[in-house]
Amino acid sequence: MKRTFDYHPPTICYDKPAAAIVSQAEYDAKRLRALAGIKVLELIVPKKTARTWTMQAGDLCRVSLPEGSQVGDLNLWNLENPRQERFFSGKTRQIHSTHLKTYDRLWSCFPYLRPMATFVKDSLEDYGIDRDGGSLHDVAGTRCDDYIYKLITGKDRVGSCHSYLTEAVKEHGLGEQDVHDTWNIFMCTGFTRDTQQYFCKPSPARRGDHIEFLAEMNLLVALSACPQGDVSIQVGQQVPDEKCFPMQVEVFRAS
Ligand SMILES: [Zn+2]
């Protein structure tokens, strides 16, 4: 006979720590002060590559799509101590949720566990959670990599967010071991209701869409323009070049 269990309604695991709740008015003001200041950096992450940049605490970063729909894989390190303190996607997911919304924060690893950045603007916030549980900007997936590609297809390949990020961080003395689970910006993902498997959908992001985050410490940031493009084609299948687009990065500093 099949065993039965008592039913209990779900309880949210964590009481949100005070540091996870920001004043929206304060962060809106910080954002506007930065935007009214000077633009200290502008760069393009070409399609199917990754780039790095640095930010000072208080800087605002806007990542936008200048040409077309494209997802990005983002990594963060403490600029002063990158080998030890980096973004912790798992705990960020538990403190907030699988998909980040504006005013959620991106947390660092143990023993620090503190905000590295705060998400302050999302041109796609109206997407919300769709009928399949799909939503944007997840901290649930990892990053695409050539090792899983080989397991699935049997083929060798160098060309994934993991390999691009690994290449990009070399100029900062970092390597493959420093690349970590990502914030998957513009990506539309969820878990199937029946089997709880990670799924993705074509990104609803379009040319001109953007997100912004404020740095809470001096940061080294790396962003990969995913070779899956808008993720409308399943991993393991050929993604045509015209499905992939560059991403634009701008950093603003209050003066
Ligand atoms: Zn990728």
Please, could you describe this protein's structure?
- It contains 4 helices and 12 strands; from the N terminus they run H-E-E-E-E-H-E-E-E-H-H-E-E-E-E-E.
- The chain starts with about 25 loop residues before the first helix and ends with a strand.
- The model has no long low-confidence stretch (mean pLDDT about 95).
- Strands 1-12-3-10-6-5 form a 6-stranded antiparallel sheet.
- By secondary structure, the chain is α+β, with helices and mostly antiparallel strands.
- It has one domain.
- The structure holds zinc ion.
- The site of zinc ion (ZN) has 7 residues, from loops.
Question: What's the total count of β strands?
Answer: 12
Low-confidence segments, given as residue ranges, are none
Mean pLDDT: 97
Beta fraction:
25-35%
Strand order of the largest sheet: 1-12-3-10-6-5
Query: What percent of residues adopt helix (DSSP H or I)?
Result: 10-25%
- What is the makeup of the main sheet? 6 strands, antiparallel
* Ligands, ions, cofactors: zinc ion
Number of domains: 1
Shape: globular
Secondary structural class? alpha+beta
Figure out the total of helices: 4
| CA radius of gyration | 18 Å
Helices and strands, in N-to-C order?
Answer: HEEEEHEEEHHEEEEE
What separation lies between the terminal Cα atoms? 71 Å
